[in-house]
Amino acid sequence: MEERYFTIGMAGHIDHGKTSLTKALTNVDTDRLKEEKERGISIELGYAPLQLENGVFASIVDVPGHERFIRQMIAGVAGIDLVILVVAADEGIMPQTEEHLEILQFLGVKRCIVAISKIDRVDEVMLELVMDDIKERLSGTVFHGAPYVTLDSLSGSGVDELKQTILTELNTAEFRDAYGSFRLPIDQVFSVQGQGTVVRGTVYEGVVRKAAQLLILPGEIPVKARQIQVHHEEREQARAGQRTAINLGGIDRTAVKRGDVLVDSENFLVTDTLDVALQVIGRKFTPLKQRTAVKVHIGTSEVMGKIVFFDRKELEQTPDEVLCQIRLDEKIVVRRGDRFILRRPSPMETIGGGWVIQPTGGKYRFGTETIEMLRQYQQGTPQDLVADALNKYQLLDEQQLMQQTSLDAGILKTVLGEGVASGLWMEIPRQGYSLSKTFIKIKDEFLERLREFHEEFPMRTGMGKAEMIQSASGAYPKPLLEYSLNLLGEQQEIKRTGQFVAIAHFQPHLPKKWRARMEQVIVALEKDGFQVKKWEEYFLGSPLPKMEIAELTVYLLETSQAYRLKEDTLIHRTAFQEAFQLLKNNTGSSFDLKQAKDILNLSRKYMIPFLELLDEQNYTRRAEDQRYWMEEK
């Protein structure tokens, strides 16, 4: 079963029990700073691992609830897959709960569990009133169908029910893309004596491996991943959805900060002008005038900038999505589709949030023409449309892409050429196009499947090619699988031996568990020469299972360590080669049965099968009572 990794946010008003609930779920106290212990509130982000059933792993982010720490809260919930909204039964919905709810929705969080805490402090009537109040507040949000769990963190009542509810929600959630380029927005930076600089964050996409060469943006600082930890456990890699700490080589602590982004390629844009789709909060706020200074939270970045409108002079409360631009005071790393929160710096308040429709905006004229252009950006660039179609259908030809994207044939041809040149997708001869990351995913699945096969059947040459393709045909088109296998062969990731496929460096070998017993059998077979017993007699009294005996038989034959003399009899290759050389050296271009018998001094019981074996191996060719030597192999 494939392991899946998620990040869960613990949100809610100050002192409603988020940290206590995190500890009840994970046995980890996330209030680690001295000030937090003294003041009883969370200042920095706290993290704790939660392992569930069915290969589901989660990191719980306990975000600060106090209004003054909203910046840390936004950094924490950026990138979460599920939120647990904690509401104290004795207080109900509070101002911070409201603001957290708005921020969560603006950041595109779709899944929520409402945890009503401190139920020991109220009676059933009060608990019912609080629950009705929460349901009313959530009725107009994406969380209107959220499940409810009542609990008390200190006694543990309801905690197991919450764990099961978390598992149910995550089992139907999409998990992050581990096959794109690696990206980790940094939310914590610190030094460890003797180790150097360490950064923490949630992996947004891709995979990072130990010793990988990475880049810190926007400063373009090259670094190396010296060590990777996931919740204090050292790992060889970390992947999308996991909370990770990375010890970086080649950089001083002062050269990196929260908001920087750790990546593994140059496929990421560094920009200071964003075209965005903005949704404002559902209550009145002080109108935002043209070019007003704003604070933008995106990923873990917190950047000042100015907001620019193209269809109005100021922004007031409106249910409509507003297409506009944010011109930042400094460059950040961003991708189309990234979510952001917009706040006014003074007086401090959340204005709204939305998503980036164009990471590299330009200078546009005021008016409907620009708004129409931004609407087209919102729908997607031609490259976006092609990428979306290939992501959905995996393999499409030009005709199918035209149908899916509605692009003009000339524009599509240009986009396809540019995408192939940049490595975004691959052209598969006579079949069409597929995303490069889809091939990487297939490659990882094929190699993992082969590793498992080699571990289970170490004596076999490899897995059958047809079986290999069939095992993945439910998830990918067969032509794409065929092409991927051929490409893996060209890249020397795998090798093909006849109909079998194996990892390039793999060699068939005896299994460790049974090696000594099997070697005893092989030695006995070699010692017996041509006076061999029936093959099954070599295993009398042996603890070797029947399946392992069958595997050993195939292994010896396929690696030519033994030959099948008769249906029930094998001879070691030493005996075969000695007999072959003796016969070859003492005959001319041909020989008959009597000559062979005189030279080899074998009984008819072994002589006839041996000569037939020579024919089978193409060393000789029989014509009536004569055998003729074939040309040297």
From TrEMBL:
UniProt KW keywords: Cytoplasm, Elongation factor, GTP-binding, Nucleotide-binding, Protein biosynthesis
Domain Tr-type G: from-to ranges: 3-174
Cited InterPro entries: Beta-barrel_SelB, EF-Tu_GTPase, EFTu-like_2, Elong_fac_SelB-wing-hlx_typ-2, G_TR_CS, P-loop_NTPase, SelB_WHD4, Small_GTP-bd
Record bears the keyword Nucleotide-binding: yes
Superkingdom of the source species: Bacteria
Recorded GO MF terms: translation elongation factor activity
One Pfam assignment: GTP_EFTU_D2
Chief location bin: cytoplasm
Gene3D superfamilies: 1.10.10.2770, P-loop containing nucleotide triphosphate hydrolases, Translation factors, Winged helix-like DNA-binding domain superfamily/Winged helix DNA-binding domain
PROSITE patterns linked: G_TR_1 (PS00301), G_TR_2 (PS51722)
Subcellular location: Cytoplasm
Physiological role: Translation factor necessary for the incorporation of selenocysteine into proteins. It probably replaces EF-Tu for the insertion of selenocysteine directed by the UGA codon. SelB binds GTP and GDP.
Protein known as: Selenocysteine-specific elongation factor
Organism whose genome encodes this protein: Planococcus notacanthi
Gene responsible for this protein: selB
